[in-house]
Design a protein that fits this description.
Blueprint (H helix, E strand, L loop, with lengths): L1 H19 L3 E2 L4 E2 L6 H15 L17 E3 L5 E3 L1 H4 L7 H16 L2
Antiparallel strand pairs: 1-2, 3-4
Length: 110
């Protein structure tokens, strides 16, 4: 569970940093430093699609984060659905744990 919570926190932090580059300061009418940069928008879009899509190499039918209770909020942040994450009584918790460890490895790989 700690790996999943860390992943969600780090993802939300990264998305917050990206979003801060687009903010319009209403008092100065100045946009963020990268507001017109399509590269940063593409990065943001790619990060979202990686998280919302299927992840190759994960086993046991848990090949998408939404299947273990990780999904986007209306604000574009990731959240954990505790009820869906508590699966495990049926033996699937070991698969979720293994996949979370694999996901952490993928996340940490440059």
């Amino acid at each position: 569970r700690q790996n999943i919570e860390s992943f969600v926190a780090e993802f939300n932090s990264a998305m917050g940093l990206i979003n801060s580059q687009f903010v319009l300061d209403s008092s100065t009418q100045t946009a963020g430093p990268l507001s017109g940069d399509s590269t940063i928008r593409n990065l943001q879009s790619r990060l979202r699609s990686v998280v919302s899509g299927q992840i190759e190499g994960l086993e046991g039918g848990f090949d998408a984060l939404v299947l273990i209770g990780i999904s986007f909020t209306r604000e574009g942040r990731l959240s954990i659905d505790d009820d869906r994450l508590r699966i495990g009584s049926d033996g699937s918790w070991s698969l979720i744990r293994m996949n979370a460890l694999q996901l952490t490895h993928v996340r940490a790989t440059p």
